[in-house]
Amino acid sequence: GGLLDRMRLDKKGFRIENPVVQAINGVSFKIEPGEVMALVGESGCGKSTVAKTIARIYSPTGGDILIDGENISDYGFSEMLPVRAKMQMIFQDPFASLNPRQKVRDIVAEPLLEQTKDAKSQKDIPAEIEALLAKVGLNSEHAGRYPHQFSGGQRQRIGIARALSVRPGLIIADEPVSALDVSIQAQILNLMMDLRDEFGLAYLFISHDLSVVHHIADRVGVMYLGFMVENAPRDQLFSKPKHPYTRALLSAAPSIKPTRDKEEIELTGEVPSALNLPSGCCFRTRCPFAWDRCAKERPVLKDVGDGQSVACHLTDEPEREVA
Ligand code: SF4
Ligand code: MG
């Protein structure tokens, strides 16, 4: 089994009451140890919601979340304590996620203290913190400072040290570099990849930026309106995208385009409201290939070989594709 054996949210998988209502439907994937799984899609597609549901910041109303074979989908706060030693999260805005009144050493130590209850082992924590700060490119002088004394990139380094402190197998990273300057983005991504190699970490990496995803992901899941519409190994997804939405996203990406011109699809129209989903295929209101079946029947993710899954009726009726 994998580390995240299966994240499966079905039917009315998830719901937050006003002011935000976000539903996730038929999202199912797994993450192997050491693997970087990216979730991509436009804002509002539910990718952050999936991340926060796996981390159990949100509670699912259905489906399963299996971590090392253990279903945590209905775990309460105390049951989550040992799970947090296996899975940590880093956020888009490190400033908002770090307590402004805590010194860096206390911020980084917090998850570790939560896991270390005996006084004897707690004695080792200050040395651990020093080592962690060094791993992320900070030093012991930084340990006594407060978050506001750091740049955005340094703050993300603090967030990474904090997540790393319990030596998790999985780090869930929700847009971890999208608030940073491009030059700093590369530094943080390189750091994350170095740590992956050193500690055998797996990442669930949430991003709307396809060039970032192309750079770091082993596998990519594409989300639209709360559905996963395609899931494939990175090279497969970028060279042979199959779902019309994936193809449209790639066509719109300046640096990454599908290999054949035929694959180019212009994305037009607005994303429908998640409160009022189209019948049948969630993408049909924007799809150039939609036909009557697409309004009647919701396509499910189907294995099309080479580790690629696609939720589109064109996989059964490819002759329908007339551009
Ligand atoms: Fe387009 Fe139909 Fe495929 Fe949906 S199922 S993506 S509407 S062709
Ligand atoms: Mg988001």
UniProtKB/TrEMBL annotation:
The cross-references to PROSITE patterns, in alphabetical order and at most eight, read:
ABC_TRANSPORTER_1 (PS00211), ABC_TRANSPORTER_2 (PS50893)
- State the source organism's domain of life: Bacteria
Query: According to its UniProt record, where is this protein mainly located?
Result: membrane
As for subcellular location, the record says: Cell inner membrane
Mode of membrane association:
Peripheral membrane protein
Q: Which GO terms describe its molecular function?
A: ATP binding; ATP hydrolysis activity
Biological process according to GO? peptide transport; transmembrane transport
The UniProt record lists the keyword DNA damage: no
The UniProt entry's GO CC annotations, sorted and at most eight, read: plasma membrane
Query: Gene3D superfamilies this protein is in?
Result: P-loop containing nucleotide triphosphate hydrolases
Looking at the record, the residues that make up the ABC transporter domain are 7-250
Its keywords, alphabetically, are:
ATP-binding, Nucleotide-binding, Transport
| Keyword Transport appears in the UniProt entry | yes
**Protein family membership:** Belongs to the ABC transporter superfamily.
Q: Which NCBIfam families match?
A: oligo_HPY, PRK11308.1
Record-given protein name? Peptide/nickel transport system ATP-binding protein/oligopeptide transport system ATP-binding protein
